[in-house]
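Below: protein 1.
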Amino acid sequence: MTAKFVQPSTGLTAFSCPHCSALTTQYWRSIKATFKPDENSAPLRITSLQEEKDFFLKDIQDKEKRRDFELFLERLHSGTPFIEGRHERYTEHVQNADISECYNCKKLAFWIGNELIWPHLNEAPIPNADMPEEIQRDFLEAGQIARQSPRGSAALLRLCIQKICIHLGEEGKNINSDISSLVKKGLDVRVQKMLDVVRVIGNNAVHPGELDIRDDRKVVEQLFSLVNMIVDSMISQPKAIEKLYAGLGEKIHSAIDRRDMK
C-alpha cells in the first residue's frame, strides 16, 4: 500500500517530510539574527575540512570537547543547514522566514513566506518499478524541477518518452512515428490519445528534450502519468504475462505448441 502523502505547507504541524517522505510531526521555528562578533562580517569558509580541523582543534586538549567540535566542523563542512546553540536567545527576528524540523529525520526545511525554498520538493509520482534505471533518473529529476521550471520538467519527460521508445526497439527520432509503431505492437490507444492532449505528437509538436512555451504544471502532471502508463503497457504487463506463462510448466507448453500447430 502506498503511504499517504500530505503536501508540505506552512499551515500544518504534520506533513510528508521533503527529506525523508515520512508523514510525521514538523516542529516550526522562527529565525533570529545576530551580528557577528568581529569586524569582519563576511562568513568564514575554509574549503578543506582538514584545514578547518588543523586551524580550530590545535588548542583543544580535552578529548571529549575536541571530538564534539570535530563533529561540529564535519556538519558545518557538509553544507547542510542545522541548528546549533539551541538554548541561546537572540532578540532580532527575521520576518516572513521560517524553519520546519522533521521529527523523524531531524532535517530542516526552509520557507520564505508560504513557499518551500529548500529542499526542492520532488513532485514526481513513484516511477513504475519496471522503468529502466536511466529513464528513472530523468523522471525523478523532472520532479525536482517541476515547481521551479515546468517547461524544463516537461522537456525531460519528453526525453523519457523518447528513451522508452528506443528501449522498446524504435528509432527514437520521431515520437509521432515511434508511437504509431508502438500502437501496432500493442500500446493502448488511450495512451496515444493522451499524447495528443499534451501536444507531444501532431503537427505542432516540439522535438524531444526541447522547451515548449505552452508547457505548464498541468501538462507536466499529464506527462508524468503518461510515462508510467507507457512503461506499464509495454514493459510491465508483457513481463507479468510471460511470468505466468513460464509458470505453466513444460508439459502444458508442449500441449499448447501442438495445439497451435494444427
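Below: protein 2.
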Amino acid sequence: LFIYSAGRMVPTRRMIELEPVCRRMIENLDELFTSPHPFDPHKAEGVIRIVAVDNAFLTLLSPLIVELEATVPGVKFEIYDRYSNMLESMRDAKIDLAIYSTEGKAVPAGFIEMPLFTSDHVLLVRRNHPLKAIAAHNGGLTFEDTARFKHIGIALAMGSTENRFIIGQQCNLADKISCEMPYFVAGACLCSESDLLMRMPRETALKLVRYFPVEILRQERGLKLPWRPGLFWYRSSDTPLLTWVRSKITIGAKRIFEEAEELLPFDR
C-alpha cells in the first residue's frame, strides 16, 4: 500500500484507489459514537434526586435551582436528608447524587467522590453579641472567650450508620451544647434571638447574614475546622442530564468559593 521513496512513505496506485473506500469506512465508524439526538440541556426533562443537608442545599444547590427554573423548566429536583441506607439507595438508582464527603475515608466500591473545594468554619452570632467587642479588642478570640457561651451543636446523620456527627468532634472541641439539631438555617434563627454560638461553614454563613440579623466572627485562634463538600454518586448512574447537572454544580461551587475568599479570606 505504501513504498518508501525520497525519505518518506508514498501511497501506491492501489492505496490511491482504496482511499475513498477507507474514508467512507471511517465516517461510518464515527456514526457509531454520534448520537442522532444530541443532548440539549434547555429541552431536558427529568427528576434529579439529591441527598443534601440544609446548608449544602442553601449554599450549593439553591443557586442552581433558581437558574434552572428560568432556563430548564422541565427538570425537577427532589432533595433528601442523609439517612442510614442512602448508599444502598444510590446503588439501586433511587438517589442520583449526594453532596457528601467521606471525610478522608475510603470511597466505597463503585462510588465516585469529586471534591468541590476546601474551606473552613466560622462562628455565627447575633448582631452586637458580646464576643464581637472582645474579638475587636483582642484581635481575635480564644477558647476561654467562647467558653463563656453555650453553642448550638449541628449534628449530621452519616450515610452509612445511625450515629450523628457533631461539627467540631474531629477537633475534640469541648463546646457546651445548649441545643443539638441537624438544621443550619433554623440554628441561624435561634442564634439571632439568643447569645448562643454556632459553628458553620464560611460560605453558608456568608449567605445567612443576608437573611438573618446575625454576624460572622472568626473562630478561636489556631483552630482549623475544614469544610470539604463534594459530589458523590454511583458509577453506573451516569446520564447526559446528570453529567450536565454535576458540571453546573462544580462550576457554581468554584464561583461561590472564590466570592467567599474575596469577602472573608482565610490564612492558608
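The chain has a mean pLDDT of 89.
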